[in-house]
Write a structure and sequence with these properties.
The complex is a heterodimer of chains A (273) and B (168). Chain A is mainly α. Helices cover 70% and strands 4% of the residues of chain A. The chains are: A mainly alpha (273), B mainly alpha (168). At the A-B interface, helix 1, helix 3, helix 4, helix 5 and helix 6 of A face helix 1 of B.
Chain lengths: 273, 168
C-alpha cells in the first residue's frame, strides 16, 4: 500500500515537473521560411500550427498526441470499470485480447531482460500501445483548425519529429536508468557505448511514420488518386507501420535494456568456470 | 538560427509529459489490473496443479501399497493352492488305498463265497446225479421188465400163431 502511494506521488511529481518544464521552456526563435509545398509542411509543420489552449502555437502532432492519450485513457477507464471486474478464469474474446496484449509485452520484457525487468514491461507496453494507437489515429482523420483558420486532418503524432525525439530519447534514458540501477557505472558505460541509440531510435520512428504520412499526403493531393488506392495505402503505410514500429521500438528497448542490465561477470570467476 | 527540422524542446517536453501521463494511467487502469488477474489465475492453477500432483503422489503410494498387498495375497493363494493340492493328493491316495483294500476284501469274500457255492453245487450235483443214476437204474430196470414181458408175450403170441397155423 505504501509503495503504491509512493508510486502515485512519484508519477504526479514527474507529470507536474514535465508540465512546468514545458511551460518554462521557451520555443526557439525559428526563422520564417516560405514553405509552399504540402510535403515540406508535412515534414516541418511550420505553417499549419494549432493553438494549445491559447498558450502556445504547437505542431498538429502534439494535439494528436494529447488526443491519442485522452482516447486511450477514456478507453482504459471504460475497460477498467466495465470489463476487468468481469474477468473470468476461462477468458472471453476481449479478455483474451487484453491478456495477450499485456502478456506479450510482459513476456518480451522477461525474455529480453531476464535479470531486471521490473518497469520494463510497463514501459514497452505503454510505448507499444502509444505507437500503435497514434499511428492508427491518422486513419480517422480527425479535424482541427489551424491558427490561420484552415481545417486540417490531425496527423500521426510520431510523424512529428518532436514526438519521435521525445520517445527515442525517453527510451534511451530508460535504458541508461536500468543500467545504472543494475550495474552502477558499468551499466552507464554499457549504455553510453550505444551513444547513437537515441538518434537512431528517434529517426527510425520519425522516418517510418513520416514516410507513411508523405505517401498518404501525396495520394490525397491528387483527386485522381483518391479512389481505391487510399485503401491500399492506408493498410500498407498505416496498419503495417503501426504494427511494425510498435514491435521494433519495444523490441529494441527491451533488447538494449536487457544488455545493459546483464550482471557483470568478473574475469577471474569466468576463468575459473 | 533555429534548430533544424523545426525541433522544439518545449514540445518535446510536452510529448514526454503526455507519455508520462499515459504510462501512469495505463499502469493503474490496464496493465496492473490485468497482470494482477493473470498472476492470480496462475497462482490458482498452480495451486490446483500442486494439489493434483499431491493427489497423484498419494494415489501412487496407495497403488504401491495395494500392489504389495495384492502380491502378498497372490503368494498366500498360491501357498493355499499348493497345500490344497497336497491335501487332495493325500486324500485321494488314502481313498485309493482304502478302496483297494475294500476291493481286495470284496474279492476275497467273493472268492470264498464262490468256493462255498462251488462246493455246495458240487455236492448238490453229486446228490442230483446219485438221484438221477438211481432213477435211471430204476427206470432201466423197469424198462427191462416190460421188455421181458413183451418178449414173453411176443413169444407166446408167436407160439400160438404157429400152433394155429399148424392146426390149420
Amino acid at each position: 500500500m505504501k509503495n503504491r502511494k509512493k508510486g502515485v506521488i512519484l508519477w504526479l511529481l514527474i507529470v507536474a515537473l514535465l508540465l512546468v518544464a514545458a511551460l518554462a521552456c521557451s520555443s526557439p526563435a525559428g526563422e520564417e521560411e516560405s514553405v509552399q509545398a504540402a510535403m515540406r509542411d508535412a515534414v516541418l509543420h511550420d505553417i499549419n500550427r494549432i493553438s494549445l489552449f491559447g498558450i502556445k502555437d504547437v505542431n498538429p502532432g502534439l494535439i494528436s498526441a494529447f488526443s491519442v492519450t485522452g482516447i486511450l485513457i477514456i478507453v482504459s477507464v471504460l475497460i477498467r470499470i466495465l470489463v476487468i471486474p468481469r474477468f473470468t478464469y476461462i477468458p472471453g474474446r476481449f479478455q483474451l485480447l487484453l491478456e495477450t496484449l499485456v502478456g506479450a509485452f510482459d513476456g518480451m520484457a522477461k525474455e529480453n531482460s531476464p535479470h531486471r525487468n521490473k518497469g520494463l514491461g510497463l514501459y514497452i507496453f505503454t510505448a507499444g500501445v502509444y505507437i500503435f494507437a497514434s499511428t492508427i489515429f491518422e486513419l480517422f482523420g480527425l479535424q482541427a483548425v489551424t491558427t490561420e483558420g484552415i481545417s486540417i486532418a490531425l496527423p500521426a503524432p510520431l510523424s512529428d519529429v518532436n514526438a519521435a525525439i521525445a520517445l527515442g530519447c525517453l527510451s534511451y534514458l530508460f535504458i541508461v536508468c536500468g543500467g545504472i540501477m543494475q550495474n552502477g557505472l558499468t551499466g552507464v558505460g554499457r549504455a553510453l557505448k550505444e551513444f547513437s541509440l537515441p538518434i537512431s531510435m528517434s529517426f527510425r520512428l520519425f522516418g517510418a511514420l513520416l514516410s507513411g504520412l508523405l505517401v498518404t499526403e501525396l495520394v490525397y493531393y491528387y483527386i485522381t488518386l483518391s479512389f481505391v488506392l487510399p485503401v491500399v495505402i492506408g493498410v500498407l503505410f498505416t496498419l503495417l507501420h503501426a504494427l511494425i514500429q510498435s514491435y521494433v521500438l519495444t523490441m529494441l528497448t527491451a533488447l538494449y535494456y536487457g544488455e545493459v542490465t546483464e550482471p557483470v561477470i568478473k574475469k577471474g570467476k569466468n576463468h575459473e568456470a | 538560427m533555429g534548430i533544424p527540422l523545426n525541433i522544439d524542446w518545449q514540445q518535446i517536453l510536452l510529448h514526454l509529459m503526455n507519455f508520462a501521463i499515459l504510462a501512469g494511467a495505463l499502469y493503474f487502469l490496464l496493465y496492473k489490473p490485468v497482470k494482477d488477474f493473470m498472476d492470480k489465475r496462475q497462482a490458482h492453477y498452480q495451486e490446483l496443479d500442486d494439489e493434483a500432483k499431491k493427489k497423484i503422489a498419494e494415489a501412487d503410494a496407495l497403488k504401491a501399497s495395494y500392489e504389495d498387498q495384492l502380491a502378498k495375497a497372490r503368494d498366500a493363494i498360491a501357498a493355499e493352492r499348493a497345500q490344497a493340492a497336497k491335501d487332495n493328493k493325500e486324500a485321494a491316495d488314502r481313498q485309493l488305498a482304502e478302496a483297494k483294500k475294500q476291493a481286495d476284501r470284496i474279492i476275497a469274500e467273493a472268492r470264498a463265497e464262490a468256493e462255498r457255492d462251488n462246493e455246495r453245487l458240487l455236492h448238490d450235483s453229486q446228490d442230483a446225479m446219485k438221484e438221477l443214476v438211481a432213477a435211471a437204474t430204476e427206470r432201466l430196470m423197469m424198462k427191462n421188465d416190460d421188455k421181458a414181458i413183451d418178449l414173453f408175450l411176443d413169444s407166446v403170441e408167436k407160439k400160438q400163431k404157429k400152433e394155429q397155423e399148424a392146426g390149420a
